Amino acid sequence: MDEKSNKLLLALVMLFLFAVIVLQYVCPGTECQLLRLQAFSSPVPDPYRSEDESSARFVPRYNFTRGDLLRKVDFDIKGDDLIVFLHIQKTGGTTFGRHLVRNIQLEQPCECRVGQKKCTCHRPGKRETWLFSRFSTGWSCGLHADWTELTSCVPSVVDGKRDARLRPSRWRIFQILDAARNFHYITILRDPVSRYLSEWRHVQRGATWKASLHVCDGRPPTSEELPSCYTGDDWSGCPLKEFMDCPYNLANNRQVRMLSDLTLVGCYNLSVMPEKQRNKVLLESAKSNLKHMAFFGLTEFQRKTQYLFEKTFNMNFISPFTQYNTTRASSVEINEEIQKRIEGLNFLDMELYSYAKDLFLQRYQFMRQKEHQEARRKRQEQRKFLKGRLLQTHFQSQGQGQSQNPNQNQSQNPNPNANQNLTQNLMQNLTQSLSQKENRESPKQNSGKEQNDNTSNGTNDYIGSVEKWR
After folding, report:
1. Phi and psi for 235 in degrees, rounded to 5?
2. For residue 264, what is the DSSP state?
3. Three-class secondary structure of residue 81 per DSSP
4. For the whole prediction, is pTM greater than 0.85?
5. Does the pLDDT at position 81 exceed 90?
6. Is residue 60 within 8 Å of residue 466, measured between CB atoms?
7. 71 neighbors 294 (Cβ within 8 angstroms)
8. Helix and strand totals (H; E) in the chain
9. Residues classed as catalytic
10. Gap between the Cα atoms of 359 and 365, Å rounded
């Protein structure tokens, strides 16, 4: 019994070595190196799946269209397109802003000098910036300018800097061309409770953001429309209870206020409409603006944020983002009562963040599914190419042997189909190896299901799976 097992094992080893030799002979170049590695190597862990320590299976709550999920910006860095970063306080925007100027692979990287906060981010061959952010253009529209301020300010600031370098005769030409300029707005959001606590700690250390303009509908708010929460130079050392008790504190629902169109509610004039109606308009405006932005990320999902930005703008970062789970806000210990009160003070932000997180994770899964479909399509093309080369080599060698000594070949090989069967068995073994590798790499939510390589069908499959999860 042992002798038979040894013979069987030896036969399998010989068959495997024969397959490797034939594969090397048929496809010796680098075009098959990736195919061989995929067929005989172990699967690589997904670096994005467990960064937030949550379940890999995400159950969506909202129904989004293909246009809502697909984010692919044809960003022309050599033309007139501009990325505009809306930086909300205490959302990790400073870290992300540094990534934009120091960590992107560019033909002409941003020039960042030691000791200077701002970097020069010029387009290739031009003395114009492709990025409107704190670390490239400074606070040109005011400190932490919101959606209402940026959308009315950015075009005039950019055109003003350009017009200053032009002769008067060319101003009209560029005013016409500016109508086709694309402004791609991006931002970062954060869990409202963590963001609120982080802002309180920042204010405790003396931050005031007094330089913020809050310009809306052409003017800043009056002191009656936006009273101050403190009387001195700053609010340093304030207790959390005092921070929460101020009814004019802009930390409350800050993310909704900064992402909505404030002109829809009369800016900071609270007497224009009832509070309930005002809150509803602000929330719906913030959701709409966020959904139609070119990109937004979440502080709690650093690697996924990096992935979606790279896929959206076709711009790659040099080094991966780092997920920091320990922050100043996380070190603040609060009881359940304070937790509930902070959530109540930020009830609009809580709803916005729930909406944003759902959209963000659906976009991530949609883009990953498209990536897997494309990889599967390439593997199928490689497999077809390999089969063709293998068959071509087999029939050429068989034809050459028969033409040299047909009588000898017939006497030595009474079964003319033996070589062909051996070749078919070899191809079958290779195909099974590739198929097993393909099944291991397919997303969990699509296991056991055959997917169409067509992008639109893949989208319909994803939308259908969302309905099933619900």
Report:
1. -120, 30
2. G
3. coil
4. no
5. yes
6. yes
7. yes
8. 16, 4
9. 144
10. 10
